[in-house]
Design goal:
Layout (H helix, E strand, L loop, with lengths): L1 H34 L3 H35 L5 H28 L7 H24 L3
Helix pairs in contact: 1-2, 1-3, 1-4, 2-3, 3-4
The structure holds protoporphyrin IX containing FE.
Length: 140
């Protein structure tokens, strides 16, 4: 039981760290879209974004290792987990798209409008609510 609780604790800590990146990377893109024509601001935002993007991938990797341990070693599974992992895959795709846009800015490519980026930034909120409900309620 202790092992299970420590693994789940680690899973949640790395999930929370990753979600910090999922929520903040699009904010950096909004700032780049609105203030990216000032070279000093642009360079700083690009540096912050690339460090955050790399950090987020490490946190996701660790969250996944502990999540897979809960699933495959402790045998916790069900329809809810498959639905949850589908949403997790969508969140990861959202994160990679944000990272691609950031790398595009570094190569001189244009960003979507800051309004579109603000809507893009809201998507993870709904996915996270559904993920947490699925794993706590296990409705199916
Ligand atoms: C990457 C692959 C992932 C796998 C294989 C996975 C798998 C699991 C499993 C098997 C549990 C244990 C459930 C239980 O003890 O009843 C769990 C707990 C949890 N997972 Fe994940 N997970 C993953 C990613 C995520 C992500 C990205 C999030 C949030 C964005 C998340 C949020 C949670 C939460 C909140 C719990 C704790 C629920 C509780 O306290 O009972 N997981 N996960």
């Amino acid at each position: 039981m202790q092992g299970y609780l420590w693994i789940k604790t680690a899973h949640l800590v790395f999930v929370i760290a990753w979600m910090g990146g999922v929520f903040y990377l699009p904010r950096i893109l909004v700032n780049l879209a609105e203030a990216g024509d000032v070279p000093a601001v642009r360079e700083r935002l690009l540096l912050m974004g690339s460090r955050l993007y790399r950090f987020g991938h490490i946190m996701f990797g660790l969250a996944a290792v502990f999540g897979l341990t809960l699933w495959l070693h402790f045998g916790i599974t069900g329809g809810w987990l498959h639905a949850k992992l589908t949403l997790v895959a969508l969140l990861l795709a959202h994160y990679i798209v944000a990272g691609r846009w950031l790398k595009g800015v570094a190569r001189g490519r244009a960003l979507p409008s800051s309004k579109a980026l603000r809507w893009f930034n809201e998507i993870p909120v709904f996915a996270l609510i559904a993920i947490v409900y699925l794993v706590l309620a296990k409705p199916f």
